[in-house]
Design a protein that fits this description.
Distance between the termini: 9 Å
CATH superfamily of the largest domain: Spore Coat Polysaccharide Biosynthesis Protein SpsA, Chain A
CATH architecture of the largest domain: Alpha-Beta Complex
Number of helices: 11
Radius of gyration: 25 Å
Largest sheet: 8 strands, mixed
Main location: membrane
Strand content: 15-25%
Family: Belongs to the glycosyltransferase 2 family.
Structural class: alpha/beta
Bound molecules: uridine-5'-diphosphate, magnesium ion
CATH topology of the largest domain: Spore Coat Polysaccharide Biosynthesis Protein SpsA, Chain A
Number of domains: 2
Keywords: Glycosyltransferase, Membrane, Transferase, Transmembrane, Transmembrane helix
Helix content: 40-55%
Shape: elongated
Subcellular location: Membrane
Protein name: Glycosyltransferase family 2 protein
Length: 336
């Protein structure tokens, strides 16, 4: 039994799997992040297993990453691993977040193709079969694009706006209305493993790699159980990571705002000095303008500092070079 404490060492392919690979069959790995999904994870696994059973020409590996769940998800996953030799569970020492969980799953997946998928059945397993078809016809990266989604009106509205904003300012072309539900060919997965930045926006990293890309359209279902693990705070952080990892537009924007306020300030200065020189008796009435200018510039400066600060904060956490995640244990079928 491999008791892994390190963070990014890829686990060797089990012997039995190697033999199968040698026989020329392709292995498809699923990367499955789990955070407090105890209510639905069993039905998820059943549905996934039923879906892949319709494509017996491939071998499968299911890499579940338990992202510090506190609701008994781990016990269920352990049970799944005990009953299904294709299941492997990477158990995190605490909650590291969705993007990091996907990263760990990728590090542990050995497939010729790797599929990243949520475990709440919002990404339907049958769609992953369509991705496999697209991969078989030569695509190296297959993204699933949402035709419709069942989330709250607020989430749909903000996501719609965000993807368009990102397309506008990002330096790489990030496909709109596409989450992390994707298939990566072995080559693409290997490349993606090399991206070790801490503020991760995986859909952007994938887009920046190139490769032969394809798309499948799907209707995103509702969660089967439980509620979203992306509250406002986490959603905003992911959104900010997306912008700051792929764009320096905010930094350029503050330069422009700086210029604009400089022009305004010049007008103000000319006006104030003119007034002082030619109409000295009314100068004291300029108090309003003084306040307006001071408060306005103060606000612009604070805002600019904030934008710069968020980039500097990211530089700081990158140079610390801490491990991306800590694994407590990797659980497999043959463990006791
Ligand atoms: N998830 C995770 N760690 C987290 C939050 C979420 O591994 O800190 C997993 C979660 O179990 C699910 C996927 O990431 O499989 C997507 O999360 P969720 O469904 O809550 O996000 P939404 O679909 O609402 O955007
Ligand atoms: Mg979901």
């Amino acid at each position: 039994m491999a008791e892994t404490i390190s963070h990014s060492v890829p686990v060797p392919v089990p012997q039995q799997q190697k033999a199968v690979e040698d026989a020329g069959r392709s292995l498809v790995s699923y990367v499955l992040p789990v955070y407090n999904e105890a209510e639905g994870i069993r039905s998820f696994h059943e549905e996934l297993a039923a879906s892949v059973a319709t494509r017996p020409e491939f071998d499968y590996q299911f890499v579940y990453v338990n992202d510090g769940s506190a609701d008994g998800s781990l016990a269920i996953l352990r049970d799944l691993a005990k009953n299904d030799p294709r299941v492997q569970v990477v158990d995190f020492a605490r909650n590291f977040g969705h993007q990091i969980a996907i990263t760990a799953g990728l590090d542990h997946a050995d497939g010729d193709a790797v599929i990243i998928m949520d475990t709440d059945l919002q990404d339907p397993p049958r769609v992953s079969l369509e991705m496999i078809d697209a991969w078989q016809s030569g695509a190296e990266i297959v993204s699933a694009r949402r035709r419709t989604r069942q989330d709250s009106r607020f989430k749909r509205f903000t996501a719609h706006g965000y993807y368009r904003l990102l397309r506008h300012c990002a330096e790489v072309e990030i496909p709109v209305d596409t989450g992390d539900f994707r298939l990566l060919d072995r080559r693409a997965a290997e490349e993606l493993r090399g991206f070790r930045e801490r503020s991760r926006f995986i859909r952007g990293m994938v887009a920046s790699m190139g490769f032969e890309q394809a798309e499948v359209l799907f209707d995103r279902d509702e969660r089967i159980a439980g509620e979203t693990k992306y509250p406002m705070r986490k959603m905003l952080r992911l959104a900010a990571d997306g912008v700051t990892s792929f764009s320096t537009v905010p930094l350029k924007l503050i330069t422009r705002i700086g210029f604009a306020s400089l022009v305004l300030a010049t007008v103000g200065i000319v006006y104030a000095v003119g007034l002082r020189l030619f109409l000295p008796e009314v100068t004291v009435s300029g108090w309003t303008m003084l306040m307006v200018a001071m408060l306005f510039l103060g606000g612009v400066q604070m805002l600019s500092l904030g934008v710069m600060g968020s980039y500097i904060g990211r530089i700081y956490s990158e140079v610390q070079q801490r491990p991306l995640y800590i694994v407590r244990k990797v659980i497999r079928y043959d463990d006791d």
